[in-house]
Design goal:
Radius of gyration: 17 Å
Order of helices and strands: HEEEEEEEEE
Strand order of the largest sheet: 1-3-4-5-6-7-8-9
CATH architecture: Beta Barrel
Largest sheet: 8 strands, antiparallel, barrel
CATH topology: Lipocalin
Structural class: mainly beta
Number of strands: 9
Strand content: over 45%
Length: 117
């Protein structure tokens, strides 16, 4: 009976995602334009903060983690227009994220992979 109660208690606990804190090298493209930031993410509970280095610019990041889904975004200027790049991916392992990246306001998207360093 004690084993059953213990099993039920553990089964009712929420599933927590792996911690995505660390340095991630991202490779992807949007509309034939390469997207290759290096992002330093910090996870606190389900929230993500940090920065992504794009070329010579360091851009602030915000996002979240829900189970194995990882989402983060930052604003980047390109040819006079500010775009919000949003990454939505699945944590495949402790060191790999795969997913899609969108650029608003252009409504373009592409795929990316990220590897933890």
């Amino acid at each position: 009976m004690k084993r059953l109660i213990a099993l039920l208690l553990f089964a009712s606990l929420p599933a927590f995602a792996d911690d995505v804190s660390g340095v991630w090298v991202v490779n992807g493209s949007i509309a034939d334009h390469p997207v290759t930031p290096t992002c330093t993410l910090k996870q606190t509970d389900k929230q993500i903060s940090g920065s992504c280095k794009v070329d010579d610019h360091v851009l602030s990041v915000e996002g979240s983690v829900k189970e194995k889904q990882v989402t983060w975004k930052y604003d980047q200027e390109y040819e006079g227009t500010v775009y919000t790049l949003t990454y939505i991916g699945s944590l495949d392992s402790d060191t790999s994220i795969k997913g899609t990246v969108t650029a608003d306001p252009s409504d373009t998207s592409g795929d990316f992979t990220a590897k933890k360093q």
